[in-house]
Design goal:
- This protein is mainly β and 111 residues long.
- The protein has one domain.
- The protein is 0% helix and 23% strand.
- It contains no helices and 6 strands.
- The strands form 2 sheets. The chain has a 4-stranded antiparallel beta sheet, with no helix packed on it. Strands 4-5 form a two-stranded antiparallel ribbon.
- The two termini are 14 Å apart.
- The relative contact order is 0.25.
């Protein structure tokens, strides 16, 4: 949630905190129009392995300038503060337990 509203199509990635393997899977998903999401790790909507995670959320809007030439493509515009897209600065942490989990909404701030 951002400004109290869902962030449809935002990319949510769970980064394992204590897994020393840099190639360990990162559960991820896109946010639904109502703000809900279901993570995928190995198979569609299978959730996330138990553990502690730092969460990153990236919500961008592609800028269509009508040109298809590579040099004319403008970078995507971030719709959230960019800090939420980086493991080092997101500040979002969750613990996934072995049983079924229902996470509270991430209420993102503008600062």
């Amino acid at each position: 949630m951002y400004h109290g509203k869902p962030t449809p199509d935002a990319l949510v990635i769970f980064h394992p905190i204590s897994d020393p393997d840099p190639s360990a899977p990162r559960p991820l998903t896109r946010v639904n129009p109502d703000g809900s999401f279901t993570l995928t790790t190995y198979e569609m909507n299978d959730g996330a392995p138990a553990g502690e995670y730092t969460v990153t959320i990236t919500w961008v809007k592609d800028i269509d300038n009508g040109n298809t030439a590579k040099e004319d493509i403008k970078p995507a515009k971030h719709l959230l503060p960019e800090r939420y897209s980086k493991v080092e600065t997101s500040g979002l942490k969750v613990e996934i337990k072995k049983e079924k989990n229902k996470l509270a909404a991430f209420n993102l701030e503008t600062q």
